[in-house]
Amino acid sequence: MIGFETIGNATLTLFDDEPIMTTDPWVFGNPYFGSWGHKYHIPNEQLNNIKKCKFIWLSHGHPDHIDPDSFSLFKGKTILLADHFNKRILNDLSKEYHCIELKSNSWFEISKNIRIKSFSDWNQDSSLLVEVLKKDIILNLNDGQALGWSSEIKNIIKNYQNRFLLRLISWGDADMINFYDHHDKFILPLAAEKKPCGETYSYNLKKWGCNFVLPFSSMHKYVRNDSLKMNKFITPLELHYEKFSNRYGEMLPAFIKWNTLNNDYEKINPEENLDEIKTSDFYGDNWSDQLEEEDKIILKDYFSKFYHLKQKFGFINFVIGKKEFNIKLSDNKAGIQFKTPRNSLIYAINNKIFDDLLIGNFMKTKLINVPSLYPDFTPYVAKYGDNANVYSKKELDKYFDYYKLKSSNFWIDFLKIKSEAFIRAKLGRYKSIYYLARSIRRSLPL
Q: Alpha carbon 14 to chain centroid distance?
């Protein structure tokens, strides 16, 4: 067989008579401190295909894409990574595994009939183009948006017969949504709107110039007792197709085996997982544990490093075991309060994976005189800081200069994403206006 199959959460496995490369193989673990589990079981045939692959391409640092419990699969493989600023993932994994850094927008042959192009962006994501037999092209956006590369990618895609789009589209739970206002009232996320996903799939076919799309990078559920309530915001698989229009192409099943030679596919039917619910204690998180004096020093040192936080926030407050610990950043009235167990908090800080706490959605986040964690907290802490070791103004300038020089249309996408981040921060008050504007934009020619 020459072609590909999709399985798991964001796993694409490529075949050239035999399995050659697989992407983001989250197979065994429960990421985000046990909060996430697989929605669907990975069948033995697909699991064995993943194990046989020579290459493993990893898109970004989230543990549903680089799963530590699945690292046993990497032994003897070649890991392919995008060329990111400061190379944190490359440097970390190179200590134990054979890794190759892929230059953005350059073809890399993985077999006689398959070659790939990787694209890194300033959000610490990377996207992938896969060419099969010079006939099929697959755009794997996983959780990202190919920031700075959209025009270049579209110009490549248009030359192929079958153009597949793989990207995260859902109601919107795969981010921090466990927010509270200053009155401790839960803030309903955008995912509560349950807007039809099919419309977004249709728009993205038009946007990227593809003629096939399938659900991808969204096959999880919450399995930890203190995050279970977030399951009501997860998009059921059948509702991914709601109000899809085939005007621009076809929407395929989520799990398929595509044969490029025959130009057709077989559907894979994995069983739904019935995971046992685990308590926070199982993962070492006791909500009554208190911060130790050493912990307070660690927290203060960590957050005091961020130049941008001091410009936008007055304080970061923690409620750990019913006791508060406050870190003053400036005289600004805006601040954030995090209520979370001590163990996972200190582990996240020590290992620079604060985003894992946010996306796990058991941590409660109170917004005080600030509408959102975007655009001024999450990117600067979780993306530029933790992933790229960038903290000062000088380091931030160098960071963005790096991506400006490598991306073909950096400024177009940068201004667009900044505008969207601003709108996103105001959505609590202007949701109806946002959805109207989005509907109008999607109806216009690109």
A: 21
Task: Report residue 167 as tokens.
Answer: 């990207």
Distance (Å, rounded) from C-alpha 64 to C-alpha 435?
29
CATH number at residue 88: 3.60.15.10
Pairing type for strands 126-132 and 162-167 reads unpaired
139 and 230 both lie in a single domain: yes
* Angle of helix 150-157 versus helix 197-208 axis, rounded to 10: 80
> Is residue 226 a part of any domain in this protein?
yes
Domain range enclosing 383: 281-395
The answer to the question of residue 416 being in a domain is no
CA distance 342 to 142: 31
Q: Helix or strand or coil: residue 365?
A: strand
d(CA 233, CA 222) in angstroms, rounded, equals 10
What is the b/e burial string over 125-136, where b = at least 16 CB atoms within 10 angstroms of the residue's CB? bbbbbbbbeeeb
For 12-69, write each residue's pLDDT tens digit: 999 999 999 999 999 999 999 999 999 999 999 999 999 999 999 999 999 999 999 9
Question: Distances in Å between the alpha carbon of 78 and those of 21, 28, 429?
Answer: 9, 20, 48
For 308-353, where are the E strands, in sequence order? 315-320, 323-328, 335-339
- Provide DSSP, 32-82: HHHTEEESB---HHHHHHHHH-SEEE---SSTTTS-GGGGGGGTT-EEEEE
Tokens 């589990």 correspond to: 37
Which of residues 380, 395, 410 is at a domain's end?
Answer: 395
| Residue 284 Rama label (left phi>0; alpha psi -120 to 50; beta) | left
Region of residue 440 (phi > 0: left; psi between -120 and 50: alpha; otherwise: beta):
alpha
Q: Residue 266 CB: number of other CB atoms within 10 A?
A: 13
- Backbone φ and ψ for 36, nearest 5 degrees, come out as -105, 145
Torsion of CA 91, 118, 173, 204, to 10 degrees: 170
In terms of domains, do 118 and 249 share one? yes
| 173 and 265 belong to one structural domain | yes
The answer as to whether 330 is a domain residue is: yes
Asked if residue 182 belongs to a domain, the reply is no
Q: Exposed e or buried b for every residue in 290-309, given b needs 16+ CB within 10 A?
A: ebeeebeeebeebbeebbbb
Per-residue pLDDT tens over the stretch 159-206: 999 999 999 999 999 999 999 999 999 999 999 999 999 999 999 999
Q: Could you tell me the pTM of the whole model?
A: 0.94
Return d(Cα 230, Cα 28) in angstroms, integer.
Answer: 22
Question: In the chain, how many domains are there?
Answer: 2
In a shared domain, residues 246 and 99: yes
Same domain for 169 and 300, yes or no, is no
Instruction: Tell me: do 359 and 220 sit in the same domain.
Output: no
